[in-house]
Amino acid sequence: MDYRTSEGITGPRSEDTLPASAAAAVKVVIVGGFGVGKTTMVGSVSEIRPLTTEETMTQAGVGVDDIAGIERKTETTVAMDFGRISLNEQLVLYLFGTPGQERFWFLWNGLFEGALGAVVLIDTRRLEVSFDAVGRLEERGVPFVVAVNAFPEAPDHPMAELRAAMDLPDSVPMIDCDARDRASSRDTLLALVRHLQSLHTVTPETP
């Protein structure tokens, strides 16, 4: 983000600059179906002012977008959300939230490029809306964790049942999450980082 200073020079705000100690920056995508909380997660956890592309939902989407269960939703992401979080002094995550509506899925491939991992957000009231996100990540070989987002009045199912319903292997971590809460969202991203580290850990051969 560029801002004009009193001297007339355009540059980033001081709070938006990377820490001098940062040694690695990793791209992470936040994916899932329409209305599962992607924009909320990026906004809650980002240490910089998040970039959002939310637009007011209009009559043009009637009959096109499936809003069953989220009838009170009034805005939707039409391109992406962007944020940043420093997990420690050396590691920075760049967060890219994908649009959830099917008519914007053509943007996903570009957002997936260069991503080291992903968080798949799910809503237990509407599991099916995130199936395609899981399928696309598996096709592209992008490692991911599944985060069960907490929604009021959403049914509470055992993790084993949710895993079976989504046909997830035991190797894919599944965790509880509240996308509105910064600490919970950060814990979800830490779970992803631990998962990525485990995939790159080489087990020594037994002599």
UniProtKB/TrEMBL annotation:
The keyword Hydrolase applies. It holds the Pfam family ATP_bind_1. It comes from the Bacteria. Keywords: GTP-binding, Hydrolase, Nucleotide-binding. InterPro entries: Gliding_Motility_GTPase, Gpn, P-loop_NTPase. Gene3D superfamilies: P-loop containing nucleotide triphosphate hydrolases (3.40.50.300). Belongs to the GPN-loop GTPase family. This is ATP/GTP-binding protein.
